[in-house]
Design goal:
The complex is a heterotrimer of chains A (306), B (303) and C (538). Chain A has a single domain, classed as ABC transporter involved in vitamin B12 uptake, BtuC (Orthogonal Bundle), CATH 1.10.3470. Helix content of chain A is 71%, strand content 3%. Chain A is built from eleven helices and two strands. Chain A has a two-stranded antiparallel ribbon. Chain A is globular, with a radius of gyration of 19 Å. In chain A, 56% of the residues are buried. In chain B, strands 1-2 form a two-stranded antiparallel sheet. In chain B, 67% of the residues lie in helices and 1% in strands. Chain B starts with a helix and ends in a 30-residue tail after the last helix. Chain B has 13 helices and two strands. Chain B folds into two domains: 171 residues, no CATH class; 54 residues, no CATH class. Chain C has 538 residues and is an alpha/beta fold. Among the domains of chain C are: 161 residues, Rossmann fold; 183 residues, Rossmann fold. In chain C, strands 6-7-8-3-9-10 form a six-stranded mixed β-sheet, sandwiched between helices. A six-stranded mixed β-sheet of chain C has the order 16-17-18-13-19-20, with helices on both faces. The longest helix of chain C has 21 residues. Classes of the chains: A mainly alpha (306), B mainly alpha (303), C alpha/beta (538). At the A-B interface, helix 3, helix 4, helix 7, helix 9 and helix 11 of A face helix 6, helix 11 and helix 13 of B.
Chain lengths: 306, 303, 538
């Protein structure tokens, strides 16, 4: 496998990481919370979309939006069930970590335990079984540019991701709602005094973030293939953390760059060293970045303090 | 419910039937205490699983290759963990809050993916067989829990204990009051590491086979949950949390298929309605909370 | 006799582009109390942070008893016998009073680790000795030993300050730095504190550095005084001499008139008007029914600490009302409550029929009650233009489904209004697309007010708008407020700069210790001897 092809693959992978990480970063930036249920939404959206296609014969162009809607709904559940009650009670910083862990457990268990015949209907054993979308769900086209092979579905992934980033960029930077989000992220009290309904902004942020996790999950399921209750945990949960740290916490642009970087580094490491080194690279980078430049790739070095 | 009632009607029989579980409870208690130690000093660190892995693997490797007795091999594991904690802690402990947690997760996972899964001596992905395993060796575990509990109880009266509590409350004030916060935070981190390594050693000793999947982030999250649900005000909380939450899946066999759903919901409920945990006391400071939300307005000294 | 314990020479300290300290020298001598005074933002706390090792200066040296300690970390500085208290009280709030003091004595506590593990016999004797010493210190600072077991956060404000001193004394320091220890205390408590401080200096031969705003307190207690302004020392000497220095008068007290070039900043309290908490509030009659804003017997507390104790005031449409008072008096808490950020514990507040005690902050802003908070609370990462645009947030239509054309039209209108404001404030226009955090304090203040205007307020509340501003900028701000009032907006102006505020206002209230102490027309308050003595420096 030549390097250039791998780099191109890295871009595909990076796109998925980017969509996932941007959602993660949004919530962390606006709320200051690491939403550990984010990966659960990733998985559940993929599973739901799969279920609709495989067991109810829905075409992908119907099933995917349904999956996205479900993901957004999960965002509602996360905010109203696991996050808002804690803010109301002025819970300590650790609390949202625990409550989102709990929610993540519930999401995984729901899929794990679904019985045959139900609409989620598959039963899993840890790591042993995974499913793929039925053949023909996605057109099989592969375009060739020079030596490079570019499967249509992966190209679509990149295109969708880029579009999403662009839309997000416009919303966050050019609209009042986007400014309101940035205001809440920086200083909720000042935002309150400006008349911004902080709770509502937070709700929209979490819902949008979950929709993005769902999109990443669906893209993953369709292009890379294996879907199991554990893809959230194994594939993206910790990598998402690595990306938001590398990119600079709360920085959307940083997360995007870091995601693509990570995608490319990983496939190159895979080429050179194998699957485990690939993950190790991500974590070493994570640790190194936090120690050297806690603000991420785009931050200025920390100010001198005694 | 027979699970609970048989404990009282036929303790010996119960013990014989659930030996493995009791051993697990003890190991989890030790792990929960190891996280508690750092929480007591105001640091949230999730590296314990990494140190547990160091303890476990060192013990098994030394037992298999050098036929070392448990005490020696476990001791070596602890020493290795302490050294690693020193190296990792020095840079990492400068971080605060959730960043420290993330950095320590990064370290743990790096250990797992980078070293354990790649080095031949650790058996790579296949895990390691433990020739000197002794599944009945439960008493060292609970003896350790007792010692750790005693130390944890008495620590508040010691000079170090007061220093740690001060650091957890307000690091700036503590430093200005003469407390070398870096040294104390590092000490707490290293003690937690040693305790986790010890737990890992004892745990590995009870198993014929250890495998890297046991030392992943999920276990770390589980241990955190044990400590927080138990309540981090005193050392009793994590122990209680470990006992209850390890036993819970067994006790609720009937709903086994949706056990995790129950577990997750329970977690959310506890953290929302009783954040101080089972044995905790509500923080009594009137100016509550560390969140920056508008509803926690600063105190009257702002005029 | 008077060896200098702690000497700082030529300290320069920069944060970003701001020179917080610009070549300051100061020395603390044993057996004497040195005062450090200056308007808010002058750099006093920064200097203390440098002296105690919390912040590293870019230039300059610190010496303790001849040893160069520049750049040493705080715990090493403490080990050399230098202790401090904090302006914002940094007690270990969840720990008991006793444990706070014990923690303070960390460096002198013997390491009795093995013995401490055994509660009886072993650490018993040790523990007793520890408790005894700690209780002695608690008594020394005037606290009731009975509170030893309570969490420190439940103590009343003045007692918390005393506890901080006890904790600092547990370090057995030779030099002690106190950062506004008397804030929030009444006259009797201050007297006790003054005795404590002079006792520490004269009997225990400590060297003390005292930061305070209460000039009478400073005069009573300090042997000599250093005055800081904008990071520079502008006067030093005995309290009497310093009080007479013209530079000091200009910095603190101005003749402050709107449009005047010599508007002063931060007229600080020079004396206490009356005893808060002892006299029943003299004003508390029912507010006129036509009032736009009416506050009746409002009580606001943070746990056990009562910040606002039965305040009654009102504003009629079109009035400009000033609220005078110093730090700790309860002004900001009152404003916070009026904006819905804090719920009152008793009493009522209504604005245009809206119950402020129940309404959400966004509903309050939409109704037209807009606050420009203390410290501006500018969104520093957003540009000036974006900050302004956000000011118009409350005027969004309620309906969630705007048609595209309507949105575009509104966006166009908004942009036009923002441009209009930028034209009105050329100061802001120059920086329209830079992050607001890069602006100076004065520019930020103007931005904050302009932003508030976009919300279309009926009542504008300003919390200390001239805080930390140079005289010319403060004058501009007051001019602006005057214009806004002339335009028909009702204004509630909270200020320490009594002079400028009274020039602008129709009526005024004086708040102290969480209660209204005086009320009346601005002109008559200007002539009131108590107010003159306390706020106008004459």
């Amino acid at each position: 496998m030549d390097v250039v092809q791998q780099l191109v693959n890295g871009v595909f992978l990076g796109s998925i990481y980017a969509v996932f990480a941007v959602g993660y970063t949004l919530v962390f930036g606006v709320l200051g919370v690491v939403n550990l249920a984010h990966s659960g939404v990733f998985m559940l959206a993929a599973a739901i979309t799969y279920g609709l296609v495989a067991f109810h014969g829905a075409p992908l162009w119907l099933a995917a939006p349904a999956g996205l809607l479900a993901a957004a709904g999960l965002g509602l559940v996360i905010e109203l069930g696991a996050l808002r009650p804690l803010r109301r009670r002025q819970a300590p910083e650790i609390a949202p970590l625990i409550s989102t862990i709990g929610l993540s457990l519930v999401f995984v268990a729901l899929v794990e335990q679904s019985r045959g015949g139900g609409w989620l209907s598959f039963v899993w054993r840890d790591g042993a079984n995974s499913v793929r979308f039925p053949a023909g769900t996605v057109p099989d086209r592969v375009w060739h540019v020079g030596r490079l092979a570019m499967p249509a579905d992966k190209v679509a992934t990149v295109v969708i991701s880029v579009l999403l980033m662009a839309v997000l960029g416009v919303v966050v930077n050019r609209t009042q709602v986007g400014r309101a989000m940035r205001a809440v992220a920086e200083n909720p009290r000042a935002a309150c005094l400006l008349g911004i309904d902080v709770d509502r902004i937070v709700l929209w942020t979490v819902v949008a973030s979950s929709a993005m996790a769902g999109l990443a999950g669906i893209l993953y399921g369709v292009t890379i293939g294996d879907i199991s209750p554990y893809i959230g945990r194994d594939q993206v949960e910790l990598r998402g953390l690595a990306v938001i740290v590398l990119g600079g916490v709360g920085s959307i642009r940083g997360s995007i760059v870091a995601a693509y970087l990570l995608g490319m580094v990983e496939v190159l490491a895979l080429l050179g060293f194998g699957a485990n080194v690939r993950a190790a690279v991500a974590f070493a980078a994570l640790f190194g970045m936090l120690v050297v430049r806690p603000g991420g790739l785009f931050a200025s070095p920390a100010a001198e303090r005694a | 419910m027979t699970f609970v009632t048989s404990l009282f009607t036929d303790p010996q029989g119960w013990y014989r039937a659930h030996q493995l579980l009791v051993g697990q409870m003890g190991v989890n208690a030790l792990l929960a205490i190891s996280i508690w130690v750092t929480l007591f000093a105001g640091q949230l660190t999730l590296a314990n699983i990494g140190f547990m892995a160091i303890g476990g693997y060192t013990t098994v490797i030394l037992a298999a290759h050098a036929h070392a007795p448990l005490v020696l091999s476990a001791g070596a594991g602890c020493a290795l963990a302490a050294g690693t904690a020193l190296m990792v802690g020095l840079p990492a402990l400068r971080l605060r809050g959730v960043f420290l947690a993330i950095a320590t997760i990064g370290f743990s996972e790096f250990l797992r993916f980078g070293l354990i899964l790649n080095l031949p001596i650790t058996g790579k992905g296949q895990g390691l067989a433990n020739p000197a395993a002794d599944p009945a060796a439960i008493w060292p575990v609970w003896a350790s829990v007792a010692v750790a509990a005693w130390l944890g109880w008495r620590v508040k009266a010691t000079r170090a204990g007061v220093a740690w509590a001060a650091i957890a409350e307000d690091e700036v004030a503590a430093r200005s009051g003469g407390i070398d916060t870096t040294r104390y935070k590092l000490a707490a981190f290293m003690i937690g590491a040693v305790l986790a390594a010890w737990a890992g050693a004892l745990d590995a000793h009870m198993n014929f086979f250890i495998d890297p999947a046991e030392y992943g982030f999920n276990r770390a999250a589980f241990v955190l949950v044990l400590a927080v649900v138990g309540g981090v005000a005193t050392v009793v909380g994590p122990i209680l949390g470990a006992i209850v939450l390890t036993a819970l899946p067994e006790a609720v066999r009937a709903a086994a298929s949706y056990r995790d759903v129950l577990f997750g919901t329970l977690l959310i409920a506890i953290v929302v309605f009783r954040p101080e945990g089972i044995v905790g006391r509500r923080r009594q400071s009137p100016v509550a909370g560390a969140l920056r939300w508008p509803w926690t307005a600063p105190g009257p000294d702002d005029g | 006799m008077d060896e200098p314990l702690l000497v700082a020479t030529g300290v320069v300290c920069r944060f970003g582009g701001v020179r917080a300290l610009d070549g300051v020298s100061i020395s603390i001598a044993a057996g004497a109390v040195t005062g450090l005074i200056g308007p808010n933002g002058a750099g006093k706390t920064t200097l203390v942070n440098v002296l105690t090792g919390l912040v590293r200066p870019q230039e300059g040296r610190i010496h303790a008893a001849g040893v160069d300690i520049t750049g040493l970390p705080p715990h090493r500085v403490a080990a050399l016998g230098i202790a401090r208290t904090f302006q914002n009280i940094r007690l270990y709030k969840a720990m008991s009073v006793l444990d706070n003091v014990i923690a303070g004595g960390h460096l002198h506590r013997r390491r009795a680790f093995p013995r401490a593990l055994f509660p009886v016999g072993g650490s018993g004797a040790l523990g007793d000795e520890l408790r005894r010493d700690a209780l002695a210190l608690i008594g020394r600072v005037g606290l009731d030993p009975g509170v030893a077991g309570r969490p420190a956060g439940t103590l009343p404000y003045g007692d918390q300050r005393r506890l901080e001193i006890a904790r600092a004394l547990a370090l057995r320091p030779r030099a002690l730095v106190l950062d506004e220890p008397a804030a929030g205390m009444n006259a009797a408590e201050k007297s006790g504190l003054a005795d404590l401080i002079t006792g520490l200096a004269h009997q225990q031969h400590l060297g003390l550095l005292l930061i305070e705003h209460d000039i009478r307190f400073v005069t009573k207690v300090c042997r000599d005084v250093v005055v800081l302004d904008f990071g520079r020392c502008i006067a030093r000497g005995t309290p009497e001499r310093v009080a007479e220095a013209p530079a000091v008068a200009a910095a603190y007290i101005g003749t402050g008139s709107t449009g005047g070039a010599r508007a002063g900043r931060n007229g600080h309290r020079l004396a206490v008007i009356s005893e808060p908490g002892t006299a029943a509030p003299r004003f508390g009659g029912a507010n006129p029914p036509s009032a736009l804003l009416s506050v009746d017997g409002l009580h606001v507390a943070y746990g056990a600490i009562a910040a606002v104790r039965g305040v009654t005031l009102s504003l009629r449409d079109g009035e400009v009302v000033a609220l005078l008072g110093a730090n700790g008096a309860g002004k900001s808490t009152l404003l916070r409550t009026l904006s819905g950020l804090k719920r009152p514990t008793a009493g009522a507040a209504r604005f245009d029929g809206l119950d402020l005690g129940r309404a959400s902050p966004s509903a309050i802003v939409r109704r037209g009650l807009v606050q420009v908070p203390e410290g501006r609370e500018i969104l520093s990462r957003l540009t000036v233009r974006e900050n302004l645009a956000l000011g118009a947030w409350p005027r969004r239509p309620d309906s969630p489904g705007p048609r595209i054309r309507a949105v575009r039209r509104r966006r166009g209108e908004l942009a036009a209004e923002v441009e209009g404001l930028l034209t009105r404030f050329p100061l802001l226009a120059q920086r329209a697309d830079t992050p607001a955090g890069a602006l100076s304090g004065g520019e930020q203040q103007i931005l904050a007010i302009a932003r508030a205007l976009l919300a279309g307020p009926r009542l504008l509340m300003l919390d200390e708008p001239s805080l930390g501003l140079a005289p010319t900028l403060a004058a501009e701000v007051f001019d602006l407020v005057g214009e806004i009032a002339a335009g028909g907006v009702t204004v509630l102006l909270v200020e320490q700069n009594a002079s400028a505020a009274l020039d602008l206002a129709d009526r005024a209230y004086v708040i102290e210790g969480g209660q209204i102490q005086k009320e009346g027309a601005a002109t008559s308050l200007r002539r009131d001897p108590d107010v003159r003595a306390a706020y106008l420096g004459t």
